[in-house]
Amino acid sequence: MKIYLQLLSIIFFLPLFASAQPDNPEARKIFEEVDKRRSSVASEVAKMQMIIYNSNGNRRKRSLKSFSYNEGDISKSLLIFKEPANVRGTAFLNISEGSDELQKLYLPALKRIQTISASQKNDRFVGSDFTYEDLGDQNPDDYSFELKAKTDTAYVLQATKKGNSQYDHFRFYIHPQKYTLGQVEYFNEEEEMIKKLVAENFEQLNEQLWQPRKMTMYDLKNNRRTELIWNDRTTGSDIPQWRFTERGLRRGL
């Protein structure tokens, strides 16, 4: 399910243009296998919790529902907030087709749909430690890859985006049998790790795909974190395509 990685996902400063990097065929093949497996579930509906911790350890809880759909190189996801009242009805839509991506946010208090621009990709999503870039699709064609390590416990890939990104590069830690992303590290130009995403409590959705029940994005610069917890997943759901339109954004749950 691509929402994992989209939420992963998934998922955060003016965008920096990434310079061209060498592309390792073996590293690319590994990441393409990850992409292939996460696309093996055509649709999914899930209930989720988002818990945001500030630097003092105080937390804010939010509940939401997600819808996702995959077909070929088309990926669609919709997040709708249920609680608390101050975010109820807020909805976020992400549609990717190949390297083309469209993101829209509905704010019910303003009754307005906002298209997320390139300059807004580094903004925090509803106050969390995920940015809009983090919530975007991870298309292998958008990256150049290096293979940093290959062990019995993890394949470690270093990736650089070919286009604009708030990050200089990423490191992906991939399980060598399940081809799941267990950890993502985000670096700035000074080679400093500024964020880290950790996935855990994996469940098997089909013969190919394992997905986490919990993901935590750590903001290492500001000593914050945001947890995403899946409470319930239903795969193979018949999701009407209007869900992934402006009508679906406005309608909510």
Oligomer: single chain
Order of helices and strands: HEHEEEEEEEEEEEEEEH
> Could you say what the CATH topology is called?
outer membrane lipoprotein receptor (LolB), chain A
Residue fraction in strands? over 45%
User: How would you name the CATH homologous superfamily?
Assistant: Lipoprotein localisation LolA/LolB/LppX
Largest sheet: 13 strands, antiparallel
What's the pLDDT, averaged over the residues? 91
Distance between the termini: 21 Å
Number of domains: 1
How many distinct beta strands? 15
3D structure, described in words:
The chain has helices at residues 2-6, 25-38, 246-251; strands spanning 16-17, 43-53, 59-71, 74-83, 91-97, 100-107, 112-115, 143-150, 155-161, 164-165, 169-174, 181-187, 193-204, 210-219, 224-235. It is mostly beta strands. A hairpin with a 2-residue loop joins strand 3 (59-71) and strand 4. Mean pLDDT is 91; it is low at 7-20.
Q: What brief labels describe this structure?
A:
3 helices; about 250 residues; globular; outer membrane lipoprotein receptor (LolB), chain A; 15 strands; two-stranded antiparallel sheet; mainly beta; 13-stranded antiparallel β-sheet
In short:
This protein is mainly β. It has helices at 2-6, 25-38, 246-251, and strands spanning 16-17, 43-53, 59-71, 74-83, 91-97, 100-107, 112-115, 143-150, 155-161, 164-165, 169-174, 181-187, 193-204, 210-219, 224-235.
